Amino acid sequence: MTCSACTSAVEAAVSARPGVRRVAVSLLQNRAHVVFDPALAKVDDIIEAIEDAGFEAEIIPDSAVSQPKSQKTLSAQFRIGGMTCANCVNSVEGILKKLPGVQGAVVALATSLGEVEYVPSAISKDEIVQAIEDAGFEAAFLQSSEQDKILLGLVGLHTERDVEVLHDILKKVDGLRQFDVNTDLSEVEIVFDPEAVGLRSIVDTIEMGSNGRLKAHVQNPYTRGASNDAQEASKMLNLLRSSLFLSIPVFFIRMCPSIPFLRTLLSMHCGPFLMGDLLKWILVSIVQFVVGKRFYVAAYRALRHGSTNMDVLVVLGTTASYVYSVCALLYGAFTGYRPPVYFETSAMIITFVLFGKYLEVLAKGKTSDAIKKLVELVPSTALLVLKDKEGKHVGEREIDAMLVQPGDVLKVLPGSKVPADGVVVWGTSHVNESMITGESAPIPKEVSSVVIGGTINLHGSLHIQATKVGSGTVLSQIISLVETAQMSKAPIQKFADYVASIFVPIVITLSVVTFCVWFLCGWLGAYPNSWVAENSNCFVFSLMFAISVVVIACPCALGLATPTAVMVATGIGANHGVLVKGGDALERAQNVNYVVFDKTGTLTQGKAVVTTAKVFSGMDLGDFLTLVASAEASSEHPLAKAVLDYAFHFHFFGKLPSSKDGIEQRKDEVLSKWLLEAEDFSAVPGKGVQCSIDGKHVLVGNRTLVTENGVTIPPEAESFLVDLESNAKTGILVAYDGEFVGLMGITDPLKREAAVVVEGLKKLGVHPVMLTGDNWRTAEAVAKEVGIEDVRAGVMPAGKADVVRSLQKDGSVVAMVGDGINDSPALAAADVGMAIGGGTDIAIEAADYVLVRNNLEDVITAIDLSRKTFSRIRWNYFFAMAYNVVAIPIAAGALFPFTGLQMPPWLAGACMAFSSVSVVCSSLLLRRYRKPRLTTVLQITVE
């Protein structure tokens, strides 16, 4: 399954089977939960229904442990050249999806990339490349999700002897499964077992085995892609120069016959032909069939697969003009009557179209600047710290950053970039993490601090131990998210794809109708002869209108309207710490009606602290805290940690070393001696914990836990508890041996921006809602503090998704902002899930947006960016549609009877070329986006 349409198809197919009561399909988990009557349906029937719908299915055992798939699926990225409009994209996607073993394919026009999900045992990447090339496009493999395959570039691979040496070296490497040397590109593709041999070892072995003659380096797919973009632009520029060089003389011959010298020269006879006509024929033939060869090739590919595109229109228009001119020239040569020729029309059309395409290539390159900037954050080299067997520092070595392996210790000098995610093992410094988190203030780093690859070390030297490298780093995951978003299609694009698929046939029909109407009217004498230009005739007059209609129509603008805007927007979002997972998420966010906030860790800082402790029995406060800490010591709940820290500092404040390491070591030593032994410990979800200490039952939790166990809360304790809850604090009640002992007040401070963000959302017309498992009194106090009127308290984790669905019942679009594992069902259920970047991996996986900076202001940024993007997309569609609606009638001569305005075909070609460029440039205006300032949103004037 690849999208929500797939889940709907599976649900519909399974629901249609008799005996099926209920089916729920999860796209994220690739699972379907089916409730059925075994008397009416069998498991095999359900599998058959799913497979009939075009998907694969297998049973997951009752243990809920997924069995490995019989066929491993890979996701690979290919660069596809030669695509010019949405029809090309649809054609390539259609061809790929029909290939055996291909489970899904998405092609992006703006990036010239295709992402194919396939079963490698059924089809290889070379066969996929071959299929794309057979369809008439250019294709090259870039990268795949297979972790043990890599492409190495080689320096020094010149002769057959060098190739033999390389073969001998690689054959001896343990763990190297296979390799394929490409001598033309000086590359070797290797498949290896990363558990048996490291990539750096392979590179070192090649260099040492060849005595330094051969040097290997990892090919960066992004650098390769940028190189291809530059080659495409260079290729287009060369074609444009050639076309311009040949077309200018043709245009000059046409426009400057009044110069005596030229008139004499061009009027000379060369056989039956005039010198001027012969020169134009020769020059334009080169433009038409040599420079313009790419249009013929692309048009042939499209027509062979039953589709049409812009190249078909260009070929039809220029060929009609060229063929007519040749026929007219030959007719004049043999009859003596010389009708006008229009060679310059086809030459100028091709020149202007190439100029437009060149500008388009340059502009489309700008849309992916965000990816390029992110890739450039990764340093090219790293300084590896060499150690002997005893772990002593023996030296340093500069290596390619792509050869860093987990566990390597790397030296990071002041002013240099951190090469990989890791942990500081020596040194102290400050690191600028603004490029990743957006946080401008330098972050202090010391031993055990986590560092992120791509960030800049500012002051002292650091030794870091790499924990995540390659695709596992934070920066790589951000790049991957942005790439995935840029590959995705927004639902609004379906309309453009449909229009593009029928656009060219409609234009050709209009062109034929235009010709027939003008020709028949002229033949019947419906318009005066004065309308027809001198030395022309009714046929030529009508043909020029028809060619202009074909040439001026542009399906490319429609195809580029959405993907270019989505590309720019996702890149801009990444620069502002807002990662969007796809165009569909971007589209939904513009219409958000409700934003549901989880309380703990989202509206609050997620760091609970005990503010008060009060005993309502004869127990000493120290003994009370020891009792509570002993009960909570086995719990992993954040509140339990707050209780334990409070009790620990009460007993040992001022009695511990001042250094951080000393405190932690001493704390571990005293905990076992200080705490009482707790037996029969159990956590009661949503209520608290219970255990036995000294043979007596201990309860630590909320009011519900205590009262359910028959413990009476004294009136003065109840009054104190109500007062705590009214001040946005959570009360922890403690009972010992069936008697109420005391309670503690815990608070989780609000994030400083929470109240302002809530007010800002209201100004944007969005209704904020707070969701929490806390009691009503505490929840209402917190909500009052941040300005939220709609509160849902006492909600268990499983019920959060139900609250989201209840808000969606009237068709409202709901966004959910959360950070924890218990928020993931609600994030998945919401129309737009927003995970706070500091949250859990599960929450981030379930969300549509990731707010990297852990700042609530980015919720407003996400909604505002979505609205600005789709406002731009709507303008793009308006311009693209308006251009064709207005331009085609003008080209067809609708204004000619009233104004005498006739659009020459070469001018129509220029207009068509600039229409797609204008749409791309319109999308590029999004690069000027600035995140909304809260003072502006709240309409606050700052003096």
Short description:
The chain is 49% helix and 19% strand. With 943 residues, it is α+β, with helices and mostly antiparallel strands.
How would you describe the overall organization of this protein?
- With about 950 residues, this protein is of the alpha+beta class.
- It is about 50% helix and about 20% strand.
- Mean pLDDT is about 80; it is low at about 60-70 and about 655-660.
Largest sheet: 7 strands, mixed
Strand order of the largest sheet: 22-34-33-32-23-30-31
Residue runs with pLDDT of under 50 for 5 or more positions: 61-71, 656-660
User: What is the count of β-strands?
Assistant: 34
Spell out the key features of this protein:
six-stranded antiparallel β-sheet; nucleotide-binding; HMA_dom; 34 helices; ATP-binding; metal ion binding; 943 residues; alpha+beta; seven-stranded mixed β-sheet; 34 strands; HMA domain-containing protein
